[in-house]
Amino acid sequence: MINFTFRNPTKIIFGKDTEYLVGKETKAYSSRILLHYGGGSIKRNGLYDRVRKSLDEAGIEVYELSGVLPNPRLTLVQEGIRICREKGINFILAVGGGSVIDSAKAIAVGVPYKGNVWDFYSGKAVPGEALPVGVVLTIPAAGSESSNSSVITNEDGWYKRGLTDDSIYPAFAIMNPEVTFTLPDYQTACGASDIMAHIMERYFTNTRDVELIDRLCEATLKTMILNVPRALKNPTDYAARAEIMWAGTVAHNNLLSTGRIGDWASHGIEHELSAIYDIAHGAGLSIVFPAWMKYVYKHDISRFAQYAHRVWNVDYNVFNP
User: Fold this and answer.
1) Which domains does the chain carry?
2) What is the pLDDT of residues 267-291, one digit of tens each?
3) Alpha-helix runs per DSSP H in the chain
4) What is each CA distance from 40 to 45, 46, 66, 75, 178, in whole angstroms?
5) Quick check: pTM over 0.85?
6) Cβ atoms of residues 163 and 106 within 8 Å
7) Are 182 and 41 in contact (CB under 8 A)?
C-alpha cells in the first residue's frame, strides 16, 4: 500500500423526497443561482417542478440554462459562463446526470478565470478557484456528484478532455433513487457499465498489499451485478435502485483509489470514441474494457484470477490453479 491523503468534502443527502431539501441547501450558499439541466426528462417526471418549488420557497432567484447533451459541449459551458458573469451569479445547481454535473463544474471554474476555460481541460492552466456547485442527481453513472473531475467536449476538433481538481468537488449532492424509476433500460445499463468501469480501473493495479480496498471494490462490483438485473426487471424496485445509486457514488468518490495506483487507459480510449462518434460513455466502455482485459491479463494473471473468483464466483482449483 502506498501513502495517500483522502478527503471528500461533498455532503451527501440520500433517500426518498430529498429533492425537497434543495432550496434549504442552496440558500446556505447563495440567493441567486444558475439552474443547469439537460432536456425534458426532468420536466416529464415532475422533478423540475419539485426543485423549482423548493427553490422558490427558499426565496432564491433562478436563472436557467438547459440543453446539456451527453458528452457535454464547450459552447454551452461558455454560454453558462457568460450568463453567470452578466447576472452576478455565484452558485450553480446541476439537476441531472454526469454530463450536466460536468458541464456545471466547467462553468464553475470558468466564471472567475480571465482566459478560455478550455485551458484547464487542455492542460494549459490550473484552476485557482471555482464557484460552488450543488447537485440533484438523476442518473447513477459518472459519479461526478461527489468527485473532483469533469469531462467536456470541444466541438472544434471534437476533443473530449478531463479536468481533475479539488476545487470542483460539489458542495452537496441530493440523491433520491425514486427519480431513477423512469430511466430507460439502455441508460440504466450504460450507467452500470460506467460505474463498474470506475471500480475496475482502480481494482486492476500493480500496487501490492491492498487487501482492504480490493475487498471494497469486489463488494461494490458484486452489488452492481446483483442489483442491475433487478432494476431492469422491475424499474420501480427502490431497494435495487438505491444500491445502484450509492454504489455509483462510492465507485468514484476516490475512496477506492486510496493506497493504490489505478489504470485509466480504458477511460482515455473511450473518451476518443465518444468524442468522435457521440456514443454513450457507458456503451463505449462496454466496448473498450473487455478488449483491454484481453490485452493486459497476462501481465498479472493472479489478479485476474482473483477477480474471476471473488467477483464472478468462478471456481478456483487449489490443486491446479
Assistant:
1) 11-178 (3.40.50.1970), 182-312 (1.20.1090.10)
2) 999 999 999 999 999 999 999 999 9
3) 22-27, 41-44, 47-57, 74-87, 98-110, 118-121, 185-203, 211-233, 238-252, 265-277, 281-296, 301-312
4) 9, 10, 9, 20, 17
5) yes
6) yes
7) yes
